[in-house]
User: Which sequence fits this backbone?
C-alpha cells in the first residue's frame, strides 16, 4: 500500500488550523460594537465637546448681549447653577477666573466667590492652578485630581478639561468621575452621550436665563440665536444646535438661518416622516428623548440618516436639539 505524503499532510493540517482560527476571529469580532473605545477616552470626548460647545455659545452672548463684567457674572451664575448632565447628574460646569476665584459652580454654591488658588486635593495636587494654566495657555488636555462626586458624596478620581472664554480672564471647566476603566463604549453610544450632554446643559441653562434674566420674547429669541450661531461640534463641524417652540416655530438654527421664524410642524423627511411633530410629541410627553430621521448633512450636502436628542427648556415652551449624522 502506498504511504501517505507526511509533509503534504502536515502542511494541509497547518493551513486548515489557520483557516479555523481566522474564521473564529472574524465571527468573534462581528459581535463587538463598531469603533468601540474605552471609557476614559470616550468620556474625554464627551466632556471636551460639551465644554467647547458651551464656551462657544457663551462667547457669542458675551459679545452682543452680556457685555460688561457684572452682567456676565450674573449670566454665568444663572446659566451654570444646578446645571447637570450625565444620567447620574455627576456632570456639571464651573467657571474660575485666572486668579483662582470661583465665579459660578454647577453643584456647590458655597464655592462661589472663594479663592481656590491654594486648594489641594487628597494627593496634594494644586489642581485649580493646573486648570487655570491649561486654560490660559489653551492646552488641549485633561488634568487628573480627586474631588467629591455630587452623585455619590464620595471623594473620587476626576478628569477635568478647561477652556478659556474669549475676552475675559475666565476658564470654563467640566469633568467626569471614573475610578476604573472597564467598559468599551460604541461610537454610536459615545455620540449619543455627546449630543445629550450639549442639549442638557444648553436647555437647563437657557431655562434659568429665560426665567430670570431675559423675560421678553424678543430678548429670548436674540439670546438663542447668538448662542447657537457659534456652536459647531464633531471633527467635521456637522454638529449644531437648533431651538424650536412647541408649535413647531423655529426660533434659532445653527446652519440654516432661512428656517428661523418659520413654522416647521408640517416638515417631512424623504421617508414622509413628520419628524418635527414627533419632536414636539417627545418634549410634551417625556421632556426629552431621541428621534431618527433623514436630513441634509451641512458638511456633505447629502441626505443622511440623523439621530437627534431633543430637550424641553424648563419653564418655557421652547425645546433645544442636537444631533449626529449616521451616514447613508
Assistant:
Amino acid at each position: 500500500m502506498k504511504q501517505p505524503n507526511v509533509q503534504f499532510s502536515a502542511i494541509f493540517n497547518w493551513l486548515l488550523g489557520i483557516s479555523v482560527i481566522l474564521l473564529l476571529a472574524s465571527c468573534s469580532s462581528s459581535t463587538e460594537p463598531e469603533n468601540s473605545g474605552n471609557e476614559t477616552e470616550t468620556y474625554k470626548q464627551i466632556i471636551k465637546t460639551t465644554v467647547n460647545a458651551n464656551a462657544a455659545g457663551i462667547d457669542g452672548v458675551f459679545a452682543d448681549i452680556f457685555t460688561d463684567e457684572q452682567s456676565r457674572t450674573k449670566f454665568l451664575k444663572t446659566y451654570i447653577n444646578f446645571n447637570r448632565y450625565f444620567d447620574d447628574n455627576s456632570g456639571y460646569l464651573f467657571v474660575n477666573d485666572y486668579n483662582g476665584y470661583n465665579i459660578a459652580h454647577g453643584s456647590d454654591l458655597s464655592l462661589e466667590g472663594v479663592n481656590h488658588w491654594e486648594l489641594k486635593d487628597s494627593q496634594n495636587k494644586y489642581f485649580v492652578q493646573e486648570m487655570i494654566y491649561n486654560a490660559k495657555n489653551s492646552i488641549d488636555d485633561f488634568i487628573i485630581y480627586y474631588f467629591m462626586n455630587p452623585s455619590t458624596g464620595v471623594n473620587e478620581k476626576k478628569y477635568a478639561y478647561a477652556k478659556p472664554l474669549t475676552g475675559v480672564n475666565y476658564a470654563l471647566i467640566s469633568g467626569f468621575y471614573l475610578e476604573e476603566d472597564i467598559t468599551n463604549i460604541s461610537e454610536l453610544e459615545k455620540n449619543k452621550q455627546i449630543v445629550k450632554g450639549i442639549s442638557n446643559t444648553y436647555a437647563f441653562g437657557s431655562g434659568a436665563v429665560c426665567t430670570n434674566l431675559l423675560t421678553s420674547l424678543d430678548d429670548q429669541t436674540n439670546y438663542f440665536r447668538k448662542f447657537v450661531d457659534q456652536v459647531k461640534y464633531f471633527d467635521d463641524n456637522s454638529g449644531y444646535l437648533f431651538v424650536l417652540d412647541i408649535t413647531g416655530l423655529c426660533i434659532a438654527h445653527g446652519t440654516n438661518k432661512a428656517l428661523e421664524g418659520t413654522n416647521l410642524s408640517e416638515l417631512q423627511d424623504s421617508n414622509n416622516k413628520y419628524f418635527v411633530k414627533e419632536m414636539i410629541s417627545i418634549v410634551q410627553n417625556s421632556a426629552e428623548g431621541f428621534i431618527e430621521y433623514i436630513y441634509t448633512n451641512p458638511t456633505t450636502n447629502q441626505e443622511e440618516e440623523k439621530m437627534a436628542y431633543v430637550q424641553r427648556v424648563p419653564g418655557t415652551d421652547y425645546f433645544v436639539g442636537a444631533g449626529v449624522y449616521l451616514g447613508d
